[in-house]
Amino acid sequence: MQKIKTGIDAPAVPISYGLVGLIFLVEAALTPANYGRIGLIVVGISFVIGCGLFLRTSLIGKALIWTKLLDEAGVLPTDQALDLGCGHGAILYRVAERLTLPGTVTGVDLWHSRDQSKNSLAATQTNLNRWGISDRTNLITADMATLPLPPAKYDLVTASFALHNVKPTKRREQALREAVRVLKPGGKLLIVDTGHNRKEYQQVLTAMDCCIVQARGLGIDGWWSGPWMPSYMIWAVKK
Ligand SMILES: C[S@@+](CC[C@H](N)C(=O)[O-])C[C@H]1O[C@@H](n2cnc3c(N)ncnc32)[C@H](O)[C@@H]1O
Question: What is the DSSP letter of 65?
Fold first, then answer.
């Protein structure tokens, strides 16, 4: 597998975890040995571990999750695929490596740097060129809640840690409806996300006459700092 630079998700979070951890550890170093010092060390180390787990999920866990999920769900070489909130292209790459022309994958994004560090169309296009997949990939700047794309065009739609960024709930539901609208009948929707929206997504998809093939938690590879911030996947098929 090629080494690929895909940015840090929600960079403000691991930076603040790391800084808070460091402050507690420095405070511990300056405190005389007593029970208070032990408490400071425990809290400091917990934040540093949280920072490490967050970075691991962003840089390694996500890649492991998607490689396994795409293998399980199956991608045909000639599939037309769409990745919602593609960011630097981590999922575009993993889909494109399974395609041969006329198979293509299109990435849609609004390029928010708060959601992924150094996020921009130019940075992602540079990645696609460097990875040698620009012949099978396209990028579009658009809001996933109002896709400028025709209905029933895609065999596969993916969304990796992107839907929870769409707020409020009504717009997020609209984004999900758009994902289903652009799928061909029989097409697959693969969602990997974190937060408390799993039931919400399943309800919208079921109401839209989609069949949920699988929905499950993703374990330590999807821990955004610890088991209290887990990730899950939903694999649905449009009837
Ligand atoms: C946490 S990043 C994940 C990026 C990529 N899917 C991955 O897993 O590496 C979320 C992405 O969703 C994009 N995004 C957020 N809201 C969006 C919207 N309404 N329409 C399109 N993209 C959006 C952000 O710009 C960001 O690139």
Answer: H
**What's the token pair of residue 89?**
């292209």
Q: What pLDDT was estimated at residue 1?
A: 45
pLDDT along the chain (239 residues), means of 10: 70 92 93 86 95 93 96 96 97 96 97 91 95 96 97 98 94 96 97 92 93 96 93 97
Exposure string for 81-100, b = 16+ CB within 10 A, e = fewer: bbbbbbbbbbbbbbbbbbbe
The CA distance from 154 to 146, in Å, is 16
> Using a 6 Å CB cutoff, which residues line ligand 1?
6, 9, 62, 85-87, 90-91, 108-112, 115-116, 119, 143-145, 160-162, 165-166
DSSP-derived secondary structure letter, 104: E
* Three-state SS at 220: helix
- For 147-186, give one letter per residue: b (16+ CB within 10 A) or e: beeeeebbbbbbbbbbbbbbeeeeebbbbbebbbbbbbee
CA 43 / ligand 1 centre spacing (Å): 32
Q: What is the whole-number distance in angstroms between the Cα of residue 23 and the centre of ligand 1?
A: 31
d(CA 48, CA 51): 5
Which neighbouring-strand residues pair with 82?
106, 157
211 in Cβ contact with 236 (< 8 Å): yes
